[in-house]
Amino acid sequence: MNLFSYTIRKSPIARFFAFALAIAAGVFLLLFFTRSILRKPVLSEIAPSVGAPGDVLIIRGQNFGQSRGFSYVELCGNRLTESGYVSWDDDLIKVIVPGNTEDGLVYVVTRAGKSNPEFFANELAIPVEMPENPMSVIPIISELSISEAAPGQVLSITGRNFGSSRGDSNVYFTTYRGSEREENIPDLAGTGFESERKAYSGFVTPSEADFDYEYWSENEIKIRVPEGAVSGSVFVATSEGRSTLQPFTVRSRLGQKSMATQHTYLVQVGADFYNIKGTNDAAVTIHLPRPVTYAWQPQAVLTESEPEPALLEYRGTSIFQVSAADKTSAKNSTGARQNFVVTSCGIECEVWKDYVVPFKDKSRMLYKAYTRPDEIIPSNKEAVLDLLPKIVFQVKNPYRQAELVFDYFVANYSVLPKPRNGDADPLDLIKRKKGDAYDFAVLYAALLRAAGVPCRILSGVLIDADKHSRNHWWNEFYLEDFGWVPVDTALAAGMDFKPFQGEAVYRKPCFANIDAQRVAFSLSYKALKQSLLSNKTVSIPRSFALQSIWEESSADVESYSSYWIVPAVLGIY
User: Fold this and answer.
1) For residue 190, with 0-12 CB atoms within 10 Å meaning exposed, 13-18 middle and 19 or more buried, which class applies?
2) By mean pLDDT, which of 228-237, 257-266, 331-340, 463-472 is the weakest?
3) E runs forming strands in 392-546
């Protein structure tokens, strides 16, 4: 200690370092105690959080200090300059957003430290959704793979804005009913697809029943030229609008087909149910058939439904539910009714039969579907296979085969005045030589399918001149590169029928020609799924629709009665 004091007294350098050390210690203690007293700034809010250069940015919080002093605001990585500050208070700071600001974090920095951050975004750098140019969303056709084709041949359409999947979109071809000037066809955009058929009444679309749609993507569509298409135009329509019309020629090397007559009917379909017994939860589900739409029945518009169906459309039916609690009359009856406006067209085919050859594209879905046996067409039965060669002999021409079978029916079978029981075997016609229209249609289809000629059964009602309707069945067979050819063997064999006055007289009635005095409810057999596996189902064979289920009853239904009306014609236009 004496040495330290002696050194301080005798050495000027020692006195200087001792004095500097004392000052440094004092400054350290001052800073320590000052920092202990100051509080770190806290940000609670900035407004606006999204702004532009030149905007006033308001920063709220606490512990900013009553004046700025050496404190500052750091905005998106940049320390604001003196000119950027509007005001500074302990809980509120206002600054001007400088011109070089991008997106980033906001801090307040004081002697006590750096605050928590808040995020600020420059609105001028945020992507803005621009209004779509209508031309960028409507379908545009850039090329057709071919400019001329026969019905059933593949057409590829390339372009853009077709949609990644078809959905409700469609391709339209000019058809026989085209009475509107094509340039006046309205767009679909904004009209809704409910008005689609009305808007495009002069056009026909590819058929799902004929497996015409093969591929659909944003930039390419592959379809088959549909039944009923004629030379004129083709276009693509989506919910965004329609493409421009492209010229397209439909021509078959096998002949031509035309619309002979056309009638429009108001048809009522319905069923009544009586005395449904069971718990109040017991219910019966009705699968009410709807008229089909296809090339030769282009319109089937629902105009009235009583009551409203539970499901408007399921595989060609409307679904209704009635329960034991529904008691609308003294007889405890309930039911369903639907009215449809249906347009039906007569068909006249001129086939140059010498040019017809056996089906070449046997991998085509249409060929596979309509040449194999199914639930109602027993084309693999021994009785059918034994009869076929006795009719067609060695003939391989599909048209001639269909004509020979038709001629055989007319010459050898007679039509019963009333339909047979539903469980009767249609193949009885072979031995009995008598049958109803259902027997005729089933056996005709079975023989043609066994011969490798695609054939289907159409079911519906036949309407005579007195507006009386009856259940009826007829056929169509398919010629490659021509399309469907109509046949009605029962009418040709002498079934009692009163045609409308002045109707067309065909060269060969009921073969390759057919009248418009019918409404179709099925183009082929429809296998429907029941609502619940525990439900009991009822089918009605030999009726105006070919479907597997007509009624379903829940497990707690004890009993009920039902009555299906033959579709009634309320008016002819």
Assistant:
1) exposed
2) 331-340
3) 414-415, 434-435, 455-463, 469-479, 483-487, 513-514, 518-522, 536-538
- Rounded to an integer, what distance in angstroms lies between the CA atom of residue 511 and that of residue 370? 19
pLDDT at residue 188 in the model: 42
142 residue type, one letter: S
H/E element holding 178?
A: none
Burial state string for 286-308 with b = 16 or more CB within 10 A and e = fewer than 16: bbbbbbbbbbbbbbbebeebeee
Helices and strands of the chain, counted as H and E runs: 9, 37
Helix axes 382-392, 437-450, angle to 10 degrees: 80
Q: What is the model's pTM? A: 0.74
Contact by Cβ (8 Å): 46, 61: no
Buried b or exposed e, range 73-83, using 16+ CB within 10 angstroms: bbbbeeebeee
Q: Give CA–CA dist 409/127, Å, rounded.
A: 74
DSSP class per residue in 324-381: TT---STT-EEEEEEEEEEEEEEEEEEE-GGG----S-TTSHHHHHTTS--SS--TTS
The DSSP call for residue 421 is P
In whole angstroms, give the CA distance from residue 434 to residue 418. Answer: 11
CA distance readout (Å), 251 to 256, 371, 511: 8, 25, 22
For 154, list phi and psi in degrees, rounded to 5. -80, 135
- Alpha-carbon distance of 71 to 91, in angstroms, equals 14
Going by C-beta distance under 8 Å and a sequence separation of 6 or more, which residues neighbour residue 27?
none
> Residue 178 above 50 pLDDT?
no
Distance, in Å, from the CA atom of 573 to the CA atom of 553, rounded to the nearest integer, reads 38
Task: In whole angstroms, give the CA distance from residue 425 to residue 181.
Answer: 51
- E-assigned strand segments in 251-282: 255-278
Chain centre to alpha carbon of residue 356: 36
Closest residue by Cα to residue 295 from 371, 244, 230: 230
DSSP H helices, 393-502, are: 398-412, 428-432, 437-450, 489-492
Q: Which two tokens stand for residue 432?
A: 């009995």
Q: For residue 44, what is the enclosing H or E element? A: strand 42-47
Residue type, 81: T
Separation between Cα atoms, residue 433 and residue 443, nearest integer Å: 12
Cα 116 to Cα 62, 70, 306: the distances in Å are 11, 18, 68
- For residue 53, what pLDDT is reported? 86
In degrees and rounded to multiples of 5, residue 19 shows phi and psi of -65, -45
Look up residue 221 and give its amino acid.
I
CA distances from 153 to 246, 349, 491, 545 (A): 17, 19, 32, 30
Q: How many CA atoms lie within 13 A of 75 on its CB side?
A: 29
Whether the per-residue pLDDT at 190 is higher than 60: the answer is no
Residues constituting the chain: 573
